[in-house]
Amino acid sequence: MTETTSPTLAPLHITRADGIVFATLNRPAKRNALTDDLVAALDAECERTAADDGVRAFVLRGAGGVFCAGGDFGGFKTMMREPASADEIDPIAASNRRFGALLDKLAALPMPTLAVIEGAAMGGGCGLAAACDRVLMADDAYLSMPETSLGLPPAQIAPFIVARAGAVRGRWLMLTGRRLSAADALHAGLVDETASADGIGLLLRGELARVLACEPAAQRATKRIVADALRRESGAVLDAAASEFAAALRSGAVAEGLAALTDRRAPRWASDAPTLPEMP
């Protein structure tokens, strides 16, 4: 079943289909550039999705054949005229930090997350993609992080770019603002798979089919373990992982998985590859 939960003209268009949330950045006339309203809408959707145990996957994409052109220049010009407030909370820093909080929430979503890059991903758009578990890219699209060429540091996206591309490679890409083809982005580790513009939907369906073939509670436990591994020393991580393993083994899901393997059938949680909803 497909359920649309946002109006077509909203800056973020949400469609739920077969347990999958499709979040579409929906400012095509502005190449889906990020505004405070769009960031707030995506932040709120991440909170809703995180609290919904029925969501199997979260897909982030852009309307109009472009993923995201980064920050909205009009917003930048407005912020440049805003002085720091008397209470020492700089409105520019606060706005920038809200975007970082969104990236944290996106990276922390408990279910598998996928970004689909068509056209271009620039600046903050690269950060959104880097915060996802899997990044798919059309082979005629490009990535760039042009902040330093504009006199800015890539402040909030930097940790997520480094997590994907590594410190040395990620740092150089951000220092130089180089434009990357899909092949270059794949080589750099910023993208996981590429396909032709006509084939990107088929690639997404295949990835979602793999997600839906696996047990959702086990996937969520896996994400918790990996997140722990990035924060804690290995002994504590392995202790927590052992508890996750024991809980999974006692849950009944493993018995179903083994029975399905023995019976040569799909387990009860498996679903067919979904039909992708149309763009707004």
From TrEMBL:
<dbReference type="InterPro" id="IPR001753">
    <property type="entry name" value="Enoyl-CoA_hydra/iso"/>
</dbReference>
<dbReference type="Pfam" id="PF00378">
    <property type="entry name" value="ECH_1"/>
</dbReference>
<dbReference type="InterPro" id="IPR029045">
    <property type="entry name" value="ClpP/crotonase-like_dom_sf"/>
</dbReference>
<dbReference type="InterPro" id="IPR014748">
    <property type="entry name" value="Enoyl-CoA_hydra_C"/>
</dbReference>
<comment type="similarity">
    <text>Belongs to the enoyl-CoA hydratase/isomerase family.</text>
</comment>
<dbReference type="GO" id="GO:0008300">
    <property type="term" value="P:isoprenoid catabolic process"/>
</dbReference>
<dbReference type="InterPro" id="IPR051683">
    <property type="entry name" value="Enoyl-CoA_Hydratase/Isomerase"/>
</dbReference>
<protein>
    <submittedName>
        <fullName>Enoyl-CoA hydratase</fullName>
    </submittedName>
</protein>
<dbReference type="GO" id="GO:0003824">
    <property type="term" value="F:catalytic activity"/>
</dbReference>
